[in-house]
TrEMBL record:
Classification via PANTHER family: ENOYL-COA DELTA ISOMERASE 2, PTHR43684
Pfam families: ECH_1
Compartments (UniProt record): Peroxisome
Gene source species: Durusdinium trenchii
Superkingdom of origin organism: Eukaryota
Basic residues bias locations: 1-13
Name the record gives this protein: 3-hydroxypropionyl-coenzyme A dehydratase (3-hydroxypropionyl-CoA dehydratase)
Signal peptide coordinates: none
Length: 305
């Protein structure tokens, strides 16, 4: 898949209201993993951003851990759908404010570069994961956290979740590829409103704009419904088809309609020869749940018709 390039790699975008006091036991808090990873029944991996005392504000190491867990889920044959959420009352407040304070000072820049994780931190890496990524937005999301949510494939949220891009109010540009992705999610006018005003909006407005698919009254309902949705997708949808659809959606952003149709026609011919297609038809005719093997048999694009 064609990648974005020259995206800014520095960490920015925290909303001012996202700052909180450090937990009563900072030593214990420091020992907690910044990102939690769990595979639950039904083929669903849960990735949980885990700095609740800071509304899960992102450090460099935390971003690296997030992408490491995406890679882990992508490589795990038992995982078919990925859910991303936050610990505590927030999803992700953006970049850690202490990192933001160093930007603009020579000493800070040297320190930041020296401590920068070695792995690629571009948010567009999520688009290359061959499994659906669902954001369960359980609370405030701002700046870099807003970008992280935007790069997920599907988004659900609680009604009272607060959303803001925050960049304009920090004197920053539309960072980390969001100027490419957000207009495709909500349209140019809504994207400009979100980016240029940097205003705060809530879950129902996010749904009206198409940024989230559904909203729920509280965190418990959100996670219950998101996991039910993810499990249904994991059980009843072909992993091979999901992988190819995801690539199609993002690659087709850069294609003309005719190029998209030609590419889809070629994939369709290949899909008929993939075992998941045969199983999908057989399970429907036999009125039973499908037993998809999916990517164990390889990508649809690599199948010989």
């Amino acid at each position: 898949m064609e990648r974005l390039h020259k995206l800014s790699s520095h960490l920015r975008g925290v909303h001012a209201d996202s700052r909180e006091q450090v937990a009563a036991n900072p030593t214990a808090a420091a020992q907690e993993p910044e990102v939690l990873y769990e595979v639950v029944e039904g083929g669903v991996a849960i990735i949980r951003l885990n700095r609740p005392s800071r509304l899960n504000a992102l450090t460099g190491s935390m971003q690296a851990a997030y992408f490491d867990t995406l890679d882990q889920a992508n490589a795990d044959p038992l995982v078919r759908v990925i859910v991303v959420t936050g610990s505590g009352r927030g999803f992700c407040a953006g970049a850690e404010m202490d990192l933001l304070k160093t930007i603009g000072s020579k000493d800070g820049e040297v320190s930041k570069v020296a401590s920068q994780p070695k792995r690629d931190l571009r948010q567009t890496q999520a688009l290359a994961v061959l499994k659906p990524i669902i954001a369960a937005i359980n609370g405030p999301v701002a700046g870099l956290g807003f970008v992280l949510a935007t790069m997920c494939d599907i988004r659900f949220a609680v009604e009272k979740a607060k959303f803001t891009s925050a960049f304009a109010k920090r004197g920053l540009v539309a960072e980390h590829g969001i100027s490419w992705m957000l207009p495709k999610v909500v349209g140019a006018s809504n994207a400009n409103d979100i980016l240029m005003s940097s205003r705060v909006f809530l879950g129902h407005e996010a749904k009206e704009m198409g940024f989230v698919t559904r909203v729920y009254p509280d965190q418990e309902t959100l996670m219950r419904e998101v996991l039910a949705y993810a499990r249904d997708m994991a059980v009843n949808c072909s992993p091979a088809a999901l992988a190819e659809m995801k690539v199609q959606v993002y690659d087709d952003f850069l294609k003309t309609p005719l190029q998209s149709i030609d590419h889809a026609n070629g994939l369709m011919a290949k899909s008929f020869a993939h075992p998941d297609s045969k199983e999908g038809v057989a399970s429907y005719v036999e009125k039973r749940a499908p037993n998809f093997q999916g990517l164990a048999f390889g990508r649809i694009m690599d199948t010989t018709p």
